[in-house]
Amino acid sequence: MTGGGPVASGIVPGNRWDLVGDARPATPPRVSVIVAHYDQPDELARTLAALAAQDHPADRLEIIVADDGSPHPVSVPARVRVVRQEDRGFRLAAVRNLGVRASTGDILCFLDADTAPEPGYISALTRLPALLPDAVTVGRRRHADLAGVPVQTPVAEAVRGRELAEPAWLADAYARSRNLLDADDRSYRYVIGAVIACSRRLFDDVGGFDESFTAYGGEDWEWAHRAWQAGAMLAHVPDAIAWHDGPEWAGREGSDRERANAQTLRLAASVPVSGSAGFGVRRSVPDLAVHLTGEHSDASLFVCVDSILATFPHAVVVLDAEPAVEALRSDARVRVRDGGESGGGAVDARVTWTLDRPMLVDDAAGLAECLAALGSGEVGTIEVESSGGVLRSRRAERRAARLCTEVGFTSVRRRVPGIHPLRPDPHVEAYVGGWGSLDAFV
Fold it and tell me: How far apart are CA 126 and CA 440, in angstroms?
């Protein structure tokens, strides 16, 4: 890396936050802790007492209680600010955004009122975002039954002998992914909103939590997915421990299949990636946008667009001009680029494939491997051999725009089977009829 390496530059390739090693910021960052709260006075008092015991310098720590319309006044110690919104039902996403708007720190740290951090929590969780502004860190949320324990009791003493089981699905995921170092498009599921931190710069670029989430669960995963697609790095910090008062969600009363299904169905529309969205239902945001530039014959244009959409039905194709072929004009997945737009036009797809000549796609496997490669690791751009165009991930595009540099993702050149340059006059009848050799098209 140039400019003194990753610690000095704040840039590492892909998700390689490990490259900064054990480095710490030269000056402790200015941290704003946003504590989301609704009518939990005892739990809030315990969490605020735990925040007062942090080893992070007090003059670099701002604590804001974001209250979701509690029915009673919220009591807090001196130097803790309270911001409040009207009670209109469950609005965790909105109240977190409210807390951010009232904050001034360079690093944002989100906690829930019933989740009390150990003394080293803030320092551990904010280290990476302070060194790498694109990092999103998630701490280790442990569980204990703290009923009847005085709220001023130090956390380590309060939880002794009261520990509850940790979520096995989370522990397994962190172990399997090496604490999210091997993250991919579905790793958003391991980012728990009650114990996350990020830089204000990244939060502002990604945008706040989606305030249309008005039921328990999902708003943190939707935000984490958006952050990943914007080029963020995901990291689990096991040394940043906060204790939740009570069992995990799956072990609570009322956490039945109906509730879990509601969350999954809500996310199916908001997180349109394989493994999260449905298989046949059209996705609001396509996984792949193909931008075919220039002017081409009606025959080659039709075969190109049709073969792409047949192989990748959730894709969209963006053309430079309105097609003359009625079959293309009538398909909502075929769009026309606005002259003022670039790349894939207004389509914010996970991957954009830019072509300057029509291609026949007759096998999904090779292209699917490219899409998978662009969903994780360090690869941001793939140049397809034989004039097969360029594939570019949204992650690479957004990070490059934010950091004003292409450093951060690698570019590779690949031969991709199943992609063939089309001749200007392909035999359309043979194509739609399913007869004739490949020579009739390429």
Answer: 60
Residue 390 main-chain phi, psi, to 5 deg? -130, 130
Kindly state the tokens that stand for 126. 């904010």
Residues 6+ apart with CB under 8 A from 197: 31, 107, 108, 109, 110, 125, 126, 129, 136, 137, 139
Name the residue with tokens 């590492």. Answer: 12
Between strands 135-144 and 195-199, the pairing is antiparallel
3-state helix, strand, coil in the chain (%, to 5): 35, 20, 45
- Looking at the DSSP bridge assignments, the partners of residue 142 are 243
Question: Residue 328: phi, psi to the nearest 5?
Answer: -80, -40
Does an H or E element contain 245, and which? strand 233-245
Beta strands in 4-134 (DSSP E): 31-37, 61-67, 80-84, 107-112, 115-117
Give the whole-angstrom CA distance, residue 9 versus residue 3: 6
Residues 56 and 122: beta-carbon distance below 8 Å: yes
d(CA 408, CA 27): 25
In the block, which residue shows the tokens 């509730």? 259
The pair of structure tokens assigned to 76 is 């807090």
What are the residue ranges in the chain where pLDDT is below 50? 1-3, 251-254, 340-345
Across the strands, what pairs with 38?
none
Tokens 């594939």 correspond to 391
Supply 239's token pair. Answer: 């040394």
DSSP category for residue 291: E
Q: For position 340, what pLDDT does the model report?
A: 44
**Closest CA relative to residue 20, chosen from 205, 235, 178, 203:** 235
Question: Is the CA virtual torsion 362, 364, 369, 372 positive or negative?
Answer: positive
Enumerate the β-bridge partners of residue 351: 288, 393
pLDDT score of 283: 76
Name residue, tokens 């047949």.
Answer: 310
CA distance 198 to 159: 27
pLDDT given at position 224:
95
Q: Give the pLDDT confidence score for residue 3 in this predicted structure.
A: 41
Q: What's the pLDDT at 391?
A: 94
243-286 pLDDT per residue, tens: 999 887 654 444 577 777 877 888 887 787 777 888 888 777 78
